[in-house]
Structure formats: C-alpha cells, structure tokens
Write a structure and sequence with these properties.
alpha+beta, BirA Bifunctional Protein, domain 2, nine-stranded mixed beta sheet, five-stranded mixed beta sheet, 15 helices, binds adenosine-5'-triphosphate, binds magnesium ion
Length: about 575
Amino acid sequence: MKLSNYFIDTLREDPSDAEVISQKLMLRASMIKKLASGIYTYLPLGLRVLRKVEKIVRESMNKAGGIELLMPAVQPAELWQESGRWDFYGKELLRLKDRHNRDFCIGPTHEEIITDIVRTSIRSYKQLPLTFYQIQTKFRDEVRPRFGIMRAREFIMKDAYSFDVSDEAAEISYRKMDKAYREIFERCGLTYKVVDADSGAIGGSFSHEFMVTAETGEDEIVSCNSCDYSANIEKATVIYNANPSENVKGKLEKVLTPKSHTVEEVRKFLSLKTEDIVKSMLVRCDDKFYIILIRGDRELNLAKFKNMINSATCELATAKEVVEVTKGDLGFTGPIGIDTPIYADNEIKDMINFVTGANEKDMHYINVNIDIDFKVESYGDFRNASELDICPKCGGKYVITRGIEVGHIFKLGTKYSEKMKAHFIDNGGKGSKIVMGCYGIGVGRVAAAAVEQCYDDKGILWPKAIAPFEIVIVPMSNDDEEVNNLSNKLYEDLLEKGIDVLLDDRDERGGVKLKDAELIGYPIYITVGKKSVAEGYFELTVRKELIKHKIEISKAVNKTVEILDFIG
Ligand code: ATP
Ligand code: MG
C-alpha cells in the first residue's frame, strides 16, 4: 500500500473525552472514529487490525472443528419469548418494531437463533457433536459505554455454540474451545490469564474468562500466590472460619446519628471501628426485595447472592425504593422491625453488639444482636474476596489484580434446549435434550486490549501478528530522485516477499512521517535518507525497542525479512 493513495488522519492531541490509553491512541492514530456514544467506525488502519484478529480467530476456530456461518443481526421477538429472555434481558436489549408493528431486537448474542437452526435440522445422535461460530456485529445498549471500542454498544464478536449428546461430550467440546482460545490470544501477542468465572443462575454449569492483564481493566482478578487458583472477583470464594465473640451481649439502644449516612460518617460520629458496623443493603432480585447484611469494611458481591437465591436479575434498590420499602431514609436501613427477608454474610454470624441503621432518619441502633433483635433467613458468602482472605485450594494468600475480559467460555447445559425443545434421538432410540456450550471473543476488545498492554510515550507498539502493517518505509525527502527510487524499489521487493508493507510517499516532512509511524506503531520502520543512501545504507528501527540497525542497501531485503522474522 502507498500512503499517498490511502487514508490516515492522525491527531497530535489526546481527544478530551478519551479515558484510557487504548482509546486515546486508537483515536489519535486514525484507527477508529466516534459516531455516537459506544458507536464507532473502524477507519482503514483499524479495520486492518480487526481483520488480522479475525483471521487468527477463524484459523484457530476452524482447526478446533468449528463451522462458520453468519446469522442475522435483527432477530424476531418470538424466539426470545420462547427462551424466556425477552422479559429478562432488560434494557441492554435494543428492541424495535417493523412496519407491521412486530417486535424485533438487535442481537446482543445468538443462542436463540442457533438453537432454532439446530432443533429443526438435528434429529439423531449421529449428527452430533456440532460447533458453529460466526464473526458478527452485536448491539448491547450498555448502561455505561466507555473506553472506546472496549465497552461499546455496537461491537464485533466471535460467538460460537456447541451441541452435544451428553454432559461428558459437552465437556470435550468445551475443552477444545479452551485450547483454541489459548492459541488465539497467544498468537495475538497478548499476556492473559484464564480465570474461573461466575456462570450466573443457570445452575450446574461452569465458565472461564480470558483476561488480558492491564491496570485499566474493568474486572478484578483474584489469584493465589502459591497455586494456580484464579477467579473473577464475582466468583472468588471467601473461606469462612467461625470465630464467635466471647463478649457479653448488651441491650439494644436507638441513638441519634445526625447526617451520618455512610459507614465512615457513622464510625466517626459514634467513635467506633468500621468492623463494629453492619451495612444493610436493600436489593431487588426478580422484583422481590431482600436485605443483605455485610460487615462495614466489606464489599457486597451481588453475583454470589444472585446465584444463592437462583434469580435471573439482581440489583441494588434505588433510593426511591429504599424509602418505600424501609420507610426510613437512605443511609439508615437496618434489619430490625422490617418484614423484608434478611440474608447475612457468614462473617456476621460471629458478631455481637453491632451497629445498624434504624430505618428512621438520623437514627441508628447500637448493641444489635442476631436472634434477639431480628432473625436471619440464611447465611452465605456474599462479599468480595480481599487480599486478607485465603485460597480455597491451598490456603495460600490472595493477590488482586485487574484485567480486561477478552473471551468467555461457558457450559450452558440444557437451558436453551429445554426451553426451546431442541431434542435428538439417542442411540437407544429415546428422545433427549441437546447439551450446549457457548463461547465469545470480543474481536474489537482484543485489539484495544493489545494497545493497553503495548504502548509507550510515543504511541502504540503493535504485536506483529495484529499490526495494521508490518513495516513502513519512510523516504525522508520527497524531491530526491534516488531516495524515491530506492524507497520504491525496497517497497516492491518487500511486497514480493509477501510482507505487509506500507510506503509513506506523502508530500510531508520526514519528521512528520516519523511521528505518525511511531504513533501508529508499525513493528518496523525503515528510513531512507539522502545522507544514509550516499553512504550505502538504510536505517531500520524496531519500534518496540527503538533500536536502530544500519542495513546495507544491497542486502536490505533479506536483512529486513530476517529482523521481521525475529521480532514478536
Ligand atoms: P462484560 O462483563 O465485559 O460486559 P459479558 O460477560 O457481557 O462481558 P459475553 O456476553 O460473555 O460478555 O460476551 C463475549 C465477549 O464479548 C466478552 O468476553 C467481551 O470480549 C466481548 N464484549 C462483551 N461486551 C462488549 C462490549 N460492550 N464492547 C466490546 N466487547 C464486548
Ligand atoms: Mg456485559
């Protein structure tokens, strides 16, 4: 490609609304362009990156036995009503009506569509197993689209679905995908971790997430410092060791705590320790309210609670709901005298004489005790793990880091085949439900995650496998015939060797072209200058190390190929 006949429009300054480095650099390097919140164009350079990621994904999926197809983005409501998700998916699902007033949605994922295909075509165990995949545009009306293409509303996903005759067979399909995913992320040049993930309310199933390690990641990863245990914080187990207090139980008392809404304000006002306070959180799960009690210094883990009560949705109640349900003020919720079911984190079992809200403005209770002052429905692990907790596998220490979820594999079981009647005849002639798995990779998110891991103060440092071009040739002067001829010749020769090379033949100063080359982050750039040409060499720079090599003009092609082969 010659740049004079291509399109780039780099920016010198960071766009003011960009929050993370990948978003800043991809916008500046003319890879993406924002159209609306969470909706982006892939400009030509960005599209090249995307296509390279897709190629790697396709190759590994095909190798693992995946069969590619392409399903529509627009999906009829009927299938979603059949699976029960039309009502449950909530506001992330973009719904629309056609001219006949029929309901449709733009697919955020495709379980319903693929299950419909399979149930009408598959009759016998002889036709299974099958794994289908597609690389396709999804739409999710995210509450907080942010970080550019990392958490977009419209984005490209590789989604795959496996269909098997039994749980054991489904596990084999799952393992194949796990292997393919590892291969994909390694080939993309990413440093990643595979972590245990929350599998929601489906029951009996399991799932793993592929996390690219990065400080800007939205997910917290809990790992053990002495074994291979690693889990998303939503999932990471907190081991409970009973440690009951020996103190004498005091007498319940209601005290005035003016304007003390937060744990910190209550702690200060009553001169207590944070651990003496119990937070009462009102949550709404499938339209029912619950109060969850956790120690003042802990963080509530809604995913764990949602799984325990087996609900489809679970969120913190709104301020309005708190006032309606507790009849008290926001910040003063408590478990005493309320008819909402009360659940408590395991740790609360051991506490006596603690402080809670009194469901009344500016009031708290002190000397609160379970069974005397209120009853707990059930206890469980309802809090986030911390670095003070202990690994459930080996007793080692937890370490918490951050990551970007680039892939998710999931054993679905018979959730969809049951609801949507996807059956087959087994080898004994009996009807049976198909066992499913689903597997996603955020193709755009992979590109952004690569930038989060590979950049410096000048720009992006693309891993070679997914760089928009592998090499850029930069003639340093435009009016020198020899420089132009030699640049062209090198370009043609490298093209001939099958190298993905770009010639920056724009009518710009050398310095400008170099700045662009560094910002865009081609793994190698070669400058062709009047002076070096006169001395018989080109200057080749490996972008990652900024190490310059003088390469003799006569051996330039072979030398370049050699260096390119060597770098990652
Ligand atoms: P997240 O927790 O980040 O919202 P998810 O659990 O909703 O992800 P899945 O439904 O498992 O994601 O989707 C499969 C993959 O699609 C994810 O692993 C991620 O790489 C990608 N993905 C999901 N949501 C987005 C988004 N809003 N923008 C870009 N990629 C996304
Ligand atoms: Mg999501």
